Amino acid sequence: MKRFLFIPTLFIIGFLSVYGQKNYLNDAGNCFKKGDYECALKNYQIYQEVSGTGGQDVTALIKQSEECLKASLIADYLYQEKMYEKAVGMYDKILKINPSDTQVKQRYDSCVSQTKTEPDTPVASSQPMEPGLHNGLLYVAGPNSYTSIAIEMAEVKGGTFVMGCTTEQGADCEEDEKPVCKVTVSDFHMGKYEITNEQFCAYLNATKRDFDGSGEIFKQGNFYTVRRGFKKHPVTNVSWAEADAFCKWAGGRLPTEAEWDYAARGGNQSKNFKYSGSSLIDDVAWCDNEIKDKLTHPVGLKFSNELGIYDMSGNVWEWCNDWWTKSYPNNPQTNPKGPGSGEHRVFRGGAWNNYARFCRVSHRNGGTPNIKGNDLGFRICY
C-alpha cells in the first residue's frame, strides 16, 4: 500500500509566503548594489506590503532608495547638459549612501575631470564686457583690465501678491508674518543663485578690500583665493554692509524684502508652494531635514522655483535691504522699502542648519547689520 506524506495546506502557503518575501528583499538588495534604484524601491515596497511590517530597517532602505533615485535623475540630467560641477554634488550624494555603485563612481570621476576645464556657469569672460546687464548676465569689471565677472540673473516681471501668512503656510506662521498685506512690485532682475565664494573672491581682489569672514576664502600673498572644492558654494560670514558693498560694486543692490518674498513665491508664475519651488522641502532646499555633513552645498543643485531661481529656501539665509519690523502694515503697499531706520536688518530663506519651517517663503528673520555666520549669505538684485 502506497503511503502519502500529508503536508497541511496552510503550512505550504505560509512557507511560500515567507520564501516570496525573502525573494523580494534579496532582489531589492541586489538592485540597490547595482545602482538600479527604481527596481530596489519597487521590491522594498512590495516586501513591506506583503510582510505586513517591514520594520524600521526596511523603512530606512526605502528612504535611501528614494533619495538615490531622485539624485540620480537630477545628476544624469546635469551630466547630459554638461553641467559637470553641479552633477558632481549629486553623484557624491549617491556614493555616500551606496559606495558600491560603480556606474555612478565612473560618472563622478568623469565630472571631476571635466570641471578642471569646463566650468558650469560663467564667472569670467576672456574679453571685457561693458558693465551692466546683457542677455541675462550682469557683467562687472574683473580684477584685471582684460576680464569681466558675469553673474546670472533671472528676469522677474512685476505684479501684485499677498505677503505674509498665506493659507499654504498652515500652522507654521509666526507673529511677524502677520497681518497679510497686499503688495505690488515693479519689474526687476534677481540673481539666479546666491553669490558664490568665487564671485566674492573676485570682488575682493578687484577692490583690494580686507575680508576676515568666510573660512572658505583666505589670503595668499596679496590675493584672496577660495579653498579647493568650495568655489561654487555660497559665500558666508558676510555682514550686511559687506553684502551691500558687493552689490553696489556690481552695479546692483540687495533686494527689498518685498522683492525677495515675491521672487521666492515664483512671482507672477507662482503656484502657491510652501517653499520656494515646491511644497516638498527636499526637492528645493538643503536644510536640516537631510543634511548630514553640516555644510553649505554648491548653488543650484536642487530644483529651481517657477522663475528659474535656485536655493531661495535653504542652503544659506539671504540678506535683504530692509530694516526688520515686528509686523506688516495693514494697508496695501507699492514697492515698499521698509522703515528708514532700525536695529536689525532682514534676512530670509532659512539655511542648511534649520528645520523646514524656517525655510518657508513667508518666514522672516533678522539680525544686527554686523552679524556674521556660516549660514548667512546673500544674492544680488538689479
How would you sum up the global shape?
Answer: globular
Helix content: 25-40%
Distance between the termini: 97 Å
Major sheet attributes: 5 strands, antiparallel
Which parts are unreliable, with pLDDT below 50 for 5 consecutive residues or more? Answer: 1-19, 117-128
The number of helices is 9
**Radius of gyration, CA atoms, in whole angstroms:** 25 Å
Strand content: 15-25%
Overall pLDDT score: 84
β-strand number: 14
Class derived from helix and strand content? alpha+beta
Helix and strand sequence: HHHHHEEEEEEEHEEHHHEEEEE
Describe the structure in your own words.
The protein has 382 residues and is an alpha+beta fold. The protein contains nine helices and 14 strands. The chain has helices at residues 9-34, 37-51, 55-80, 84-97, 102-115, 197-207, 240-249, 257-264, 281-284, and strands at residues 124-125, 132-134, 137-141, 148-156, 159-163, 181-185, 188-191, 217-220, 223-226, 317-323, 333-334, 345-348, 364-367, 376-377. The strands form four sheets. Strands 1, 2, 3, 4 and 7 form a five-stranded antiparallel β-sheet that branches. The protein has a four-stranded mixed β-sheet with strand order 13-12-10-14. A three-stranded mixed β-sheet has the order 5-6-11, covered by helices on one side. It is globular. The N and C termini lie far apart (97 Å). The model is unreliable at 1-19 and 117-128 (pLDDT under 50).
